[in-house]
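Tutorial handout. Part one gives the primary structure; part two gives the three-dimensional structure as tokens.
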Amino acid sequence: MSVSVFIQTLNEEDNLPRCLESVSWSDDIVVLDSYSTDRTEEIARAAGARFYQRKYDGRANNQNWAVENIDFKHPWVWYVDADEVTLPELAHEIIQLTSDTSRPEVAYLVRRKNIFMGKWLKHGNVYNCWFARLWKPNKIRWERGANPVAIIDGATGFLKCDFLHYTLSKGFEAWFGKMNKTSTYEAEETMKELQHGRIDWLGLISPDPVRRRNALKRLSFRMPCRPLLVFIYMYLLRAGFLDGRPGLTYCTLRAISEFEICCKVKKLRQRQKDLPT
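Part two.
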């Protein structure tokens, strides 16, 4: 075995058992908790996981703290959230790749299947997103408070198998609560991008899917009617309508999230100009 498992949690007593079961093949499971008030700690320790706690101040900060302060037992780390499941075929691929010490990669990207309202959202560009989830701790860092961007020092590979993400596992109330917190981080990052960033025009046509997605996101920050454009892009241009009612609901929620971000960006701009908010 050459892989540790890293999980972030906050009140995940309902999701965590399923997640832990899916990574039970690892002998080094590490949970970084943001002071849960439910049975998260009890469940994690009962499964033999090492348990750490840290006040949450953004996903990137949490992840950077983990790679800097946690002594993972193995040279490779597989990162999974509590509402996600590592499928057996993916676990086999992870173990196989990391056991080959001759490979040059220091990190691997993987796609996830979002399970929403009981259905896999195959369209709407939800499936075609790649995430850095398998990495060597000394070769990766993250930027941005929300939806962090991985900065990888070395060669990157792509995993063939996917993992499952149960997007609505805590219900709509929790979804909107999370959306409210995430939109605050996104609004702050949008302000930074508008003030100091630039559009990566070449990135829009890059063969690298991660660079292409980040370039498109940077462009979207500067476009009017952003919530409407996000909905049109996901539901029509990326065929989210093929996912039926769950697809319509998800694309609508994403548009609402973008609207919330735009409102908070406007509020931050008013504060900068000392205008009433």
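Part three, for discussion. The CA atoms of residues 50 and 269 lie 43 Å apart. Helices lie at 16-22, 40-46, 59-69, 88-98, 171-196, 209-220, 226-237, 244-272.
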